[in-house]
Amino acid sequence: MSIASLALVAVGSSGCSGASGGRSATPTFPPPAAATTVTGTTVPPPTSDAATTTAPTNLDDVRLRLTEIGRFDEPVALVHRGTTLYVAEKAGLVLSLGPDGAREALDITDRTSSNGEQGLLGLAFSPDGTHLYVSYTDDDGDSRVDEYAVAATGGDRSKAVVAEPASRRQVLALDQPYPNHNGGHIVFGPDGMLYVGFGDGGSGGDPQRRGQDPRTWLGKLLRIDPHPDGDQPYTVPPDNPYADGSGALPEIWSAGLRNPWRFSFDAETGDLWVGDVGQNAIEEIDLVPAAEGAGRGTNFGWSAFEGSTRFNADQGAPDHWLPIYEYRHGDSGCSVTGGVVYRGATIPALRGAYLFGDYCASGITALVADGGQLVDAAQVADEPAKVVSFGTDAEGEVYVLSLDGSVYRLDPA
Q: pTM score > 0.85 for this model?
């Protein structure tokens, strides 16, 4: 399917808009501090040939088939540790997938609220595989990120692990004013830091204007080192854009997000991709190349803007990063689910393409970017329905999760 037939609103350049006007109801973000070089914490630049040799040239060559690998109770996230896949269920259960089927790796159903948009929302293993991190809404509906040590395996990453309940340690806590727009996705970036996405706090239209408020984590992407710093349960990386707390909370990496429902880093280039759920009319996909800081100090515009369109007129119109792709509510969907860049080997024609879906419309869409610009878009699968998440295995192969219960692997047709 061509770009035109996707009802695409292509926002020509994934760059900054200089619109002005309106009056800000909250303090505005200061310019981010200049990046400092800190060994082990800076986002790596793209590899020299990634932009020219790894993107597919024609999505018409892509032929996919969805292979069901299991059925679950409202699966919402999939990650891997070595060769083992782990699936999170919304109610609070984490399961490992092995030759003998699914086995329990962690059960936090007793402390998880799972009504509506609440639940176990994010899952990540530390880069060394020794700890499991879970992001969820607790019994009061507030956001929490907890850390668990996993049972020792002697370094064998082919073996499934279980979390040790007694090792639980709270890393982040955020009160939620409403039961929706929790965000909750967590990812370890290519720099080894933990990235945490939170929505604007909920209700509708950002009533407290939190998306542009530098005094709250709501509506933001955070970046932390989850290791304790004295009495604080995590460490603020010194190269964060507001690390000194001057003008904005030091944990903030990016701002202006309504509900970042799945974000990811390209495993080969380090580029940041974000799927941000819209309000009344527009869903958006954002791409910030690693060469542009991979989101460092980026303002995505909400709620002064919904996508590239002016939204709350009382918000000062910030210079904001324009979506690489947006679409209007209708046949194309109404609630975007961000995905991942395909870096596997079984579907060569898809390598380098970004895959995403929409909860309200069946199917998977692929985008191809070159130098931060959109060059191709096509629907590459007509199923599944209720797409809620994507994940990858150790080889870069991609999996798609439906809240209906199925987890599928993408295979060549």
A: yes
Residue range(s) defining the domain that contains residue 305: 4-29+39-412
Q: What is the pLDDT along the chain (413 residues), one digit of tens a residue?
A: 333 334 444 554 445 443 333 334 467 888 898 876 544 444 444 443 444 345 666 898 898 999 999 999 999 999 999 999 999 999 999 999 987 789 999 999 999 999 999 999 999 999 999 999 999 999 999 999 999 999 876 667 778 999 999 999 999 999 999 999 999 999 999 999 999 999 999 999 999 999 999 999 999 999 999 999 999 999 999 999 999 998 999 999 999 999 999 999 999 999 999 999 999 999 999 999 999 999 999 999 999 999 999 999 999 877 899 999 999 999 889 999 999 999 999 999 999 999 999 999 999 999 999 999 999 999 999 999 999 999 999 999 999 999 999 999 999 99
Three-state DSSP at 350 gives helix
Q: Are strands 143-149 and 131-137 parallel, antiparallel or unpaired?
A: antiparallel
Answer yes or no: is 34 within a domain: no
Burial of residue 97, with CB atoms counted within 10 A of its CB: 0-12 exposed, 13-18 middle, 19 or more buried: buried
Q: Tally the domains of the chain.
A: 1
Q: Identify the bridge partners of residue 80 per DSSP, sorted by sequence position.
A: 85
The CATH number of residue 76's host domain is: 2.120.10.30
Q: Is residue 186 part of a domain?
A: yes
Q: Which residues of 50-82 are buried (b: 16+ CB within 10 A; e: fewer)?
A: bbeebbbeebeebebebeeebebebbbbbbbbb
Gap between the Cα atoms of 237 and 257, Å rounded: 21
Report the distance separating Cα 131 and Cα 151, nearest Å.
9
Q: What is the largest CA-CA distance in the chain?
A: 60
- Is the CB of residue 316 less than 8 Å from the CB of residue 304? yes
